[in-house]
Write a structure and sequence with these properties.
By secondary structure, the protein is α+β, with helices and mostly antiparallel strands. It has two domains: 2-105, Glutamine synthetase, N-terminal domain (Ubiquitin-like (UB roll)); 116-442, Glutamine synthetase/guanido kinase, catalytic domain (Creatine Kinase, Chain A, domain 2). It is 37% helix and 21% strand. It contains 13 helices and 18 strands. Strands 7, 8, 9, 10, 11, 12, 13, 14, 15, 16, 17 and 18 form a twelve-stranded mixed β-sheet that branches. Strands 1, 2, 3, 4, 5 and 6 form a six-stranded mixed β-sheet that branches.
Length: 443
Amino acid sequence: MTEVSQRAREENVSLVRFLYADHGGIIRGKAAAAARLAERIESGIGHTRAMMAMSMMDELQPVEGMGPIGEVRIKPDPNTFVTLPYAFGAAAMLADQVNPDGTPWDGCARTFLKQAIADLAAEGYELQASFEPEFTLGRREGAELIPVDESLCYSATGFHLAHDYIIDLVAALNKQGLEVEHYYPELGHGQQEVPVRHATALRAADNHVLLRETVRAVAIRQGLWASFAPKPLPDQAGNGAHLHASLWAGGSNAFIDPSGQFGMSRLGYRFLAGVLAHLPGLVALTCGSVNSYRRLAPSMWAGAFGCWGPDNREAAVRLCSPIGAAGSVNLELKPSDSTGNPYLALGGFIYAGIDGIRRSLDPGEPLLVDPATLSSSERTRLSVVRLPASLSEALDALEADSLLMSALGPLRSTAYLAVKRSEAAHFAEKDAAYECFHHWMKF
């Protein structure tokens, strides 16, 4: 606390934002005045429990224990303190929501990921992860998002047209300790991809929140708009946030076995099998919006079928070839986007993988073709299942998944289902233009 307070003074910080991700996938928070920062780090900022029952449309859902009675504290993690290079006088910390006595609150998403990390540690492993986010850069004109370009995928023209924005963005990310790995203009009009270096699971989720905030903020300050919505433009390629992950033990990648199939260990295949076993319900957490399922469709390179394969970008789980070193062997979960709460998404992913390890599950044979090219009988024979085609279907699968529901706990699972079912009902009565507008505005 002392170090953070001193940094705030030295860096002329007036307000420090305490940020969290809600069940609707929206980044929210409150800000503490720097003069009282030390005591606010200690006590947190008072907050109504009801906010974790709020949908992306700011419609409060009737969830017992998340009404007008009762309080939590937004308690920041001092290890996450960053001065915001795009907002003079402001800094931020990622926060947990805790009970007034300081004990963990079972409605907090960040706490859920901490619990998953602890359970994985009990098995002897640590997860390294990173999200690989795509977003659409454009200009807001009323209810329309006009992309900054119509360039081709990976084209040099795309680099030129987004250059000034991207250079400012990379500088802002690096100043916050988010090491940019690479950048390129993607397939869709105005679509950009800027992944940052992998980290331990909690830091990876924190990084994704900071990245989302930075991408949007730098755009606003340049008179632009940036959206992580899965399908902000219905006729363009969707924005994913592919999840890359591997297990580590004793400083080594536990997914590696040079003698194993495709160089992956038996442990890696068991973890993979657990993810596949729970994937229909898991996508309710990793693809957390109605708009997600416009992207999660066959032949969209989004992983719409529950299968795996080495470098198969149409499979839900891709076994990635090593890049530069064997230590880079990892799994890529393709049905994942930035409308999912990253703490819930990553926590659910870990619990699914743990289940595969504990039950010694087998993922079956790899798929070496696009699953959409197979006949329905071939897919049945190969146990290749179509993942949920709507948020409602995904929520039904989540509710039927006893392991994920138990891991989430009664309050968190009840609130999540209530919030997401309300969003599904809200958009069911609206057209595509209304849906896309509200998603590109809010994500």
